[in-house]
Design a protein that fits this description.
Elements (H helix, E strand, L loop, with lengths): L10 H20 L12 H18 L9 H13 L4 H9 L8 H24 L5 E10 L2 E10 L2 E12 L2 E9 L2 E2 H15 L2 H16 L2
Helix pairs in contact: 1-5, 1-6, 2-3, 4-5, 4-6, 5-7
Length: 218
């Protein structure tokens, strides 16, 4: 089989996945946190709002807006989001069945690369985002899973945005973002599956690494 016929995040797929990642994480990072009084806000929604409040504190910190503080500001934002996003669960679901064949070291490497890819794909755009906020519409839970349905507001545009969370003890972590009915994780899984069918897992990892390095380059 050809090892270089399928490139990761290429063409229309790049634009679609990039849009999902940007909207989904913008919704978490920069929403106003507006909750209509009639909407019941349980622990999953409260967890989301707690993260949003901390992100807004960082975004609005005048000292961190200084050019010399850019790296520190980015690091704080990424740390805050990482505490809410379950990157390992996202990675497992995005990779699919091959995940079970990986060693612990390989899993750790894949999670790191996938997290870096997501972070570098949206970080700069998110920091310059000037949307108007988000409304929390509904929350539903089933055992250890929950979904928090929201609507992103930006001018006259309204974008349905749902966060899927999994419970870890006393905490709720995001494992997928669904934008206008389209799953971020499923988009990546489809792309990863195509690459694995055309080549191999080492080639997928190599492409992830090269893509992340390219995104990090000035």
């Amino acid at each position: 089989m050809a090892t270089h016929g399928m490139k990761i995040l290429d063409g229309a797929t790049v634009r679609r996945i990039g849009r999902l990642a940007l909207i989904g994480l913008v919704g978490l990072w920069l929403s106003s946190g507006f909750v209509p009084p009639q909407v019941f806000a349980g622990p999953p929604t409260d967890s989301m709002k707690g993260t949003i409040d901390e992100v807004l504190r960082i975004i609005h910190d005048k000292e961190l807006k200084q050019a010399a503080k850019a790296d520190e500001r980015r690091s704080l934002l990424e740390k805050t989001v990482a505490e809410r996003f379950d990157y390992q669960e996202m990675s497992r679901r995005a990779l699919g069945a091959p995940w079970n064949q990986l060693s612990d070291k390989e899993k750790q490497e894949f999670v790191s690369l996938f997290q870096t890819l997501l972070t570098n794909s949206y970080a700069e755009k998110v920091e310059s985002y000037s949307g108007e906020g988000v409304q929390y519409l509904h929350e539903r839970t089933e055992k250890e899973y929950a979904e928090v349905r929201t609507k992103i507001l930006s001018g006259k545009t309204e974008i349905p945005l749902d966060y899927r969370l999994i419970n870890h003890g006393a905490d709720w972590r995001v494992y997928d973002v669904v934008v206008d009915g389209v799953s971020l994780v499923n988009n990546y899984r489809g792309q990863f599956t195509k690459i694995l069918r055309a080549s191999s897992y080492p080639d997928l990892v190599d492409q992830l690494r090269k893509k992340s390095d390219k995104l990090k380059s000035p």
